[in-house]
């Protein structure tokens, strides 16, 4: 395998990435250990992956469609009720700036904790 000569003045910004990838592939090819087909034999003896039932995808689609329709019909009324009650709550009691910051900080902490729990690897 012949290597292509490169000159630093002709390199475009993507050439250095190509060079790194080629070097890595060359290093991998040199470090390959022949196992005489052992890996292929082991892979052939593994059981077939479990398949899901055919009805699962259409059933999930129908359930999500039902949830979407239910939300579409109930959400406008519920959102209006929540907005009215929130307006009554906020109009009835004057809030200080420190109380607003505490509520925002608690909500932010809750969102970060939720994100960390959702993103962590199981």
Task: Summarize the structure in words.
The protein is mainly α and 122 residues long. It has a domain at 15-45. It has helices at 15-30, 38-45, 56-92, 97-119. The mean pLDDT is 84.
Could you provide a short overview of the structure?
The chain has 122 residues and is an all-alpha fold. The chain has a domain at 15-45.
Q: How big is the Rg?
A: 30 Å
Helix content: 55-70%
How is the quaternary structure best described?
A: single chain
Mean pLDDT: 84
What are the secondary-structure elements, in order, as H or E? HHHH
How many strands, what sense, and barrel or not for the largest sheet? none
Instruction: Give the total of beta strands.
Output: 0
What share of residues are in beta strands? under 5%
Distance between the termini: 44 Å
Q: What structural class do the secondary elements suggest? A: mainly alpha
> Which regions have little confidence, pLDDT < 50, spanning 5+ residues?
none
3D shape: elongated
**Number of helical regions:** 4
């Amino acid at each position: 395998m012949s290597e292509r000569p490169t000159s630093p003045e002709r390199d475009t910004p993507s050439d250095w990435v190509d060079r790194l990838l080629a070097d890595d592939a060359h290093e991998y090819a040199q470090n390959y250990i022949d196992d005489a087909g052992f890996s292929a034999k082991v892979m052939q003896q593994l059981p077939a992956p479990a398949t899901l039932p055919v009805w699962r995808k259409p059933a999930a689609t129908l359930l999500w469609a039902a949830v979407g329709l239910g939300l579409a019909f109930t959400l406008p009324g519920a959102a209006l009720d929540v907005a009215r009650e929130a307006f009554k709550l906020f109009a009835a009691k004057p809030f200080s700036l420190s109380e607003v910051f505490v509520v925002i900080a608690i909500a932010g902490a809750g969102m970060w904790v939720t994100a960390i729990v959702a993103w962590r690897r199981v």
